[in-house]
Amino acid sequence: MNAMTAQNLRSAFGGESQAHMRYLVWANKAEKEGFPNVGRLFKAISFAEQVHATGHFKAMKDESGDFQVTAGAGFGLGTTSENLQGAINGENFEVEQMYPAYIAVAELQNEKAAIQSMKFAIEAEKVHANLYSEAKEAVDGGKDVDFSEVYVCPICGYVEANGAPDKCPICGAKKEMFIKY
Amino acid sequence: MNAMTAQNLRSAFGGESQAHMRYLVWANKAEKEGFPNVGRLFKAISFAEQVHATGHFKAMKDESGDFQVTAGAGFGLGTTSENLQGAINGENFEVEQMYPAYIAVAELQNEKAAIQSMKFAIEAEKVHANLYSEAKEAVDGGKDVDFSEVYVCPICGYVEANGAPDKCPICGAKKEMFIKY
Ligand SMILES: [Fe+2]
Ligand SMILES: [Fe+2]
Ligand SMILES: [Fe+2]
Ligand SMILES: [Fe+2]
Ligand SMILES: [Fe+2]
Ligand SMILES: [Fe+2]
């Protein structure tokens, strides 16, 4: 694998791994604040970030060794409204800045596995940002969000509330494969 | 919180989050290679790294915002023996280099929450390294390791195979609190 694509994939892996972890902490906080459905959404999207991190890791399975990895990550444990805003900011950064840049380099270098893994991620992040925005609107209105079930595609990290699609709109995976939260 | 301690904690959080993720991928590989107990150990220690990452994140709960985080991380998806060696290297780096340096700075700056969180981590990493070494010896001899149950302390990330201690030797948590894998 070309060095620049490998470096970008390690950075994306670092960012996804930290997002996965941050969302678990924020899920716990949402539950404590009396927003169990926001907690469910954070847990579901945390798993989606695990799907992305795992995809990136496997795309560079032959790039063994120890590296210093630089990645963007959000911090702070605020109110659930603040945490949702932090999540929206992180997702938008990935959609607008990080993945377009990394995908452009992977395309320049014709790195097919990296392109695939990152295209799945960028499409899923758009959906994550929208779901977090919907949740923030509810919380800012003093209510929990109306997501009694949240489904995650284990292939690409696409997320849908209140029911799984017949076929994943990003990767085509079948309804039966979705993981329910 | 002092800037250097906050930067070090973010780096440790980044490293722990990536170790958590890497061990889940390696757990899956161990199961596929016919080493379910090594898979169990990877999953249990993955959870211990989540305990560390969460502790670090909470120790800097008021340090909100988006940052570029640089952290050491291992990559590559090899045989289970190779993956165990990668895990041992990562644990030893934390025990011998990363945490001693970061704890020294936190002590210089009298950052009590950071010292606590990182002292729990360094003590637990020593145990992780030993358990991975035991697992590697078994795998290199062609057998699965003899760990039919693995217990994790949810406060400090201490791990014990084949039974939980009455009291956690690192943090003092009671037997009933341990999580079984
Ligand atoms: Fe992601
Ligand atoms: Fe996302
Ligand atoms: Fe999908
Ligand atoms: Fe750790
Ligand atoms: Fe460890
Ligand atoms: Fe403990």
UniProtKB/TrEMBL annotation, chains A, B:
InterPro entries for this protein: Ferritin-like, Ferritin-like_diiron, Ferritin-like_SF, Rbr2/Nigerythrin, Rr_diiron-bd_dom, Rubredoxin-like_dom, RUBY_RBDX
Limits of the Rubredoxin-like domain: 148-181
Keyword RNA-binding carried by entry: no
Cofactor names: Fe(3+)
UniProt keyword Electron transport present: yes
GO terms of molecular function: iron ion binding; oxidoreductase activity
Organism domain of life: Bacteria
CDD domains to which the protein is assigned, alphabetical: rubredoxin_SM, Rubrerythrin
Protein keywords: Electron transport, Transport
Domain Ferritin-like diiron intervals: 1-143
Protein's UniProt name: Rubrerythrin
Organism from which the protein derives: Sporanaerobacter acetigenes DSM 13106
